[in-house]
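Now for a sample.
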Amino acid sequence: MRHIFHVLGFFLFLGCLNVEKVQAQEPGTANAPYLLLDKGLQYRITKAINSMYNFDFATAERDFTVIMYQYPDHPLPDFLMALGYWWRIEINVNNKRYDNIFIQYLDRANAKAKKMLDQNPKNKEAAFFLAAGYGFQGRLYSERKNWTKATFAGNNALDYMKMSKGEKEFNPELLLGDALFNYFSVWIPENYPLLKPVLALFPKGNKKLGLTQLENVASNAFYTRVEAQYFLFRLYGSEEKRPEDALRIVEYLHEKFPSNPYFHRSYARYLYTTGKWTQAMQESFEILARIDQKLFGYESTSGRYAAFYLGEYFYRVGNKVEAKKYYSKTITFGEESESQESGYYLYSLISLGKIATAEKNKPLARTYFSAVKKFAKRKHPAHQEARDFIKKNKL
């Protein structure tokens, strides 16, 4: 469920540039295009969003507030404010601290978009903001397992998405929405068969074309380039099984936005995944140092990633003392973030159990493997590995 709301959220908003092939004019003139196509405003929004990506929320929100003052009846400023709070949520989706203010800004954006649509039922910009707003709400509600609200929001998002579907041919700046639609309209039914009847209402997508379009945007666009890169590295790293390509993109994102903990931990992740151990260690130590310094956004989720990579490194080189230290840190961070079912948490327990077994401390080993069986679902590979190890070593 999470992926469909992701698509209908942030990336639908950015896809709202797919509305018309029109020339940019000054907003407010008789033949004015949609506000998002104003070139000067695009530049200002990009600067603010770049500040947001770098977790400089104070600077970003000052710019968003100016836009809100200039365009008080438009949903864009409220949506941008909500977007900033989404990034605060994104770094640790278990943290509910920002839920209410995030929803409040989306509600305000939705109300303004509905008013625009009442005034002009053919206003595709308003429809896209409503698709984006409800899509984002649906994603948060799905994270919170509030399925009634998530379903309501998702249905609304799909309705407005259908209303606002644009033309087929766009330049690289305007292509992101179609790229994601093409990819996920195929991917979602493949992975969530229950959603097939819903997506049957939409044109048939083309996953290969969607990926090609997304690569085009990531390479050639200006306004939507970073957003496309963010989505592309995630697809490369998971669905497309291209970790080296994921690393190439996320390395660039980390260099451009060095204070973004999401990009930082993703960079460490793909260094680890691609076997670049020395660099992975360096970034992991830096992540833990930033957590100790209490830099905003660096918290237990990033710590769980970094500590696990360090534990793995020291375990592989035979330094069991340091391995135990960092696997134990992984466990602590996992408990802080209530992520006991995560792979890093479970495999840290397994490694600690194996080390305890090698050290002839069977009671401690049983404790670790029992914890694996407690937190992992029975079909999880970690659960199977724990059962096999217990049986083989008669724990």
Notes: The two ends are 39 Å apart (CA to CA). The chain has two domains: 2-241, 246-393. The CA atoms of residues 25 and 32 lie 6 Å apart. The domain at 246-393 is CATH 1.25.40.10 (Serine Threonine Protein Phosphatase 5, Tetratricopeptide repeat).
